[in-house]
Amino acid sequence: MTRTAEAAPPSHVTKRAAREPATGEATAAAPAGLEDYKKLVLVRIARQPRRATGLRGSAVIGLRIAGNGRVAELNVQRSSGSPRLDAVAVAHVRRAAPFPPPPDGISVTVVVTVESVG
Predict the structure, then answer these.
(1) Average pLDDT of 99-115?
(2) Considering only CA atoms, which of 104, 48, 100, 111 is closest in space to residue 70?
(3) Alpha carbon of 40 to those of 34, 67, 91: distances in Å?
(4) For residues 13 and 42, is the Cβ–Cβ distance under 8 A?
């Protein structure tokens, strides 16, 4: 069974999310609307049906969401050590797409840990 994990609600999703600044743009604290959007993405990922894998472990998946809400990039940032489990984690995140467009049509990066408990 695959699940996602997080430090803040929902309790089973671990996340690290950040807006990608445009070229030459200073990095500043993310506006509240952007943080709410990231939480929405994580909740949507967490609500995806979980698939039984027979494996235990976790993979860290990074995704970049384009201004139109489609996934522009999706990759394994830290492998579980099992190519099969990594593929299941990527598929789990991919099933949540497309997402609503981000605030102001910006590109948003979200990192989520997907755990498999068997």
Answers:
(1) 94
(2) 100
(3) 10, 15, 18
(4) yes
Q: Please state the pTM of the whole predicted model.
A: 0.73
Of the candidates 73, 70, 69, the one whose C-alpha atom is nearest the C-alpha of residue 111 is 73
Per-residue confidence (pLDDT) for residue 28, from 0 to 100: 44
Residue 89 Cα distances to 25, 54, 58, 104, angstroms: 32, 13, 8, 29
Number of H helices and E strands in the chain, helices first, is: 2, 5
Q: Please name which of 114, 104, 113 lies closest in space to residue 20, comparing C-alpha atoms.
A: 104
Cis check for the bond before 21: say yes or no (omega within 30 of 0): no
Q: What percent of the chain has pLDDT over 70?
A: 73
Q: Which class for 109: exposed (0-12), middle (13-18), buried (19 or more C-beta within 10 A)?
A: middle
Decide if pLDDT at 58 tops 60. Answer: yes
- Average the pLDDT over 76-88 and give the result: 96
Q: 63: closest CA among 82, 85, 38?
A: 38
59 to each of 9, 71, 79, 84, 101, how far by Cα in Å? 19, 18, 5, 11, 26
